[in-house]
Amino acid sequence: MEKDGDEDEEGNSAEQRVARSSDAGARPPIYNAEGMHEKLEDICWPSEAAWDESLVITGEDSTQVEDVDDDLARELAFYNQALAAARGAVGKLEAAGTKWLRPPDYYAEMVKSDEHMARVKAQLMHEQGEIEGAQDRRKQREAKKYSKQVQAERIKEKAQTKKASISSISRLRKQRARDGFAGELDMEKELARGPGGKTPMSPGQRIRPVHAGERKVSKKREAKDTKFGFGGRKRLGKQNDASSAADMGGFRQGNFDDGVGRGRGGGRGDGGVRQGGVKKNAGGNRPGKARRQAGNRGR
User: Fold this and answer.
1) Residue 260 host element (H or E)
2) Can you give the pTM of this predicted structure?
3) Is 61 within 8 Å of 88 (Cβ atoms)?
4) Reduced to 3 DSSP states, what percent helix, strand and coil does the chain have, rounded to the nearest 5?
5) 6: buried, middle or exposed (CB in 10 Å: 19+, 13-18, 0-12)?
6) Where on the phi/psi map is residue 194: left (φ > 0), alpha (ψ -120 to 50), or beta?
7) Is 126 within 8 Å of 118 (Cβ atoms)?
8) Could you read off the pLDDT of 60-93 as tens digits, one per residue?
9) What pLDDT score does 98 carry?
């Protein structure tokens, strides 16, 4: 037996359901299909409107995916469908002469304010500083660990050198005892000699090695080369020639007189004027030292 469209599975009609809902005090449901269709016709997009008002693109080909559970294939199908729709929209815009690219000199308003971006920048710089500080601290720890290792190696090397020196001195003492040498062994001098028994030299005392084919120069030869130069003609080096003899640029005329000049005794006695190298009109003899000292005490 077929049931009426207005009856539910239990056989209740719409009037009975409305009556029960009214009895319960609830608002009765309203299902006005004709009114909803009229409103849909009022708000629907008119067919005569231009396409650039809606920019709606419908794909021509349907999307087919063999395995809907394959994420890569499904996303690739969506990508191809969107790409085809975008190409179709660009073609329609260019055909209509509508500009769809942003001009190169177009500056849009920022979504976030400058104060907000300044706070973001400060936060990023703070995080960067913390990262750099952590890296510096890690490098310092590694350097400290490396310096400790180097110091330990140096201490170990120094201990080995000292041990070798002491062992060499012990052998030297035994050798001196066997050879019958008298006297005490100088420990500091022997320690300064080093493990090999040789006294270390300073860089200034080291002799430069002579390479193959190079002549060894003595200290005396180096001193003479520094003083006199290296070979060549030395005699008559200051002899004049015609041009230098005729050059009078460096000549200075002397201040000559008639043999009359002031000697060392000038200004004493009666003038102390010399003539012909002989002191003329000299004053009295100078008193001796004892007389001068006695005169000074009497003043």
Assistant:
1) strand 260-262
2) 0.27
3) no
4) 50, 5, 45
5) exposed
6) left
7) no
8) 778 888 888 899 999 999 999 999 999 999 998 9
9) 86
